[in-house]
Amino acid sequence: MTVTPPPSRPATRAAVERASAALARLRRGRLLHPAGRSFAGETMIWGTPGPPTGVGLLDDPGRYPTTVRLSKGTPTPGSWPDVLGLALRLHHDSGRPFDLLVSSSGAAPLLRNLPLPRRRFTGTYSTIVSYRVGRRRLWLAALADPEAVDLGRSLAAVAAATRADTPRLVLAVASAVGPWRAVGQVSLGAQLSAEADLALAFDPVHNLPTELRMAGPVAVLRDLTYRGSRRARGATAQSGGSTAATV
Predict the structure, then answer these.
(1) Which pTM does this prediction carry?
(2) Shortest CA distance to 168 belongs to which of 151, 182, 154?
(3) Of 11, 23, 54, 98, which is least packed with CB atoms within 10 Å of its CB?
(4) 121: exposed, middle or buried (Cβ count in 10 Å: 0-12, 13-18, 19+)
(5) Distances (CA, A) of 64 to 16, 26, 91, 182
(6) What region, left, alpha or beta, does residue 208 occupy, with left being phi > 0 and alpha being psi -120 to 50 degrees?
């Protein structure tokens, strides 16, 4: 009797990437979070309060031009609840940009691991999965700034908020059960064109500071899914983004 061996790990990974590319072609755009708006912005890092994270980009004060994209996951119509997304690309001088992708979630320790649908774009966005810094685990988040303009319930409202004011979010870090510690501020400026939004492609697994890495099997799945989506659009991990801070 001939026994067919199970597919090898490289073959399985290739199959996942091909399937992601095929689904992205069917959607005629991004596989994940296809509906969104992109903006030029700026991230100001204040430095880490208390013990350092071990990530120089977060521990040392600095100012970075940033591309910001807010999006809906499914997407649902208008202001219906959805898992909302926030993507940040920090442009800095050490080679690759820093791509940080966070999803609407709760702020409490048990809820920061769960993507939670909501109506309003103002709220907590977390990385859902942890990063590794040496042997330690780290979560990152963008939190609502209580003194900033509200982002509203739709992508159109987000765009209107950037025309009327300068929306801001607070960048924060936390351990698995610890409180969020604010390390900086992200400001949104002028909206980018629809063409620029379409060209923008993120790589949340590889576009990271050297000290930081995404941990666990979800990282592999995320890597393959984003690769397939980029391949279907003819984009690369460095595609798009505005290096001009307009805030």
Answers:
(1) 0.84
(2) 151
(3) 11
(4) buried
(5) 35, 36, 6, 17
(6) beta
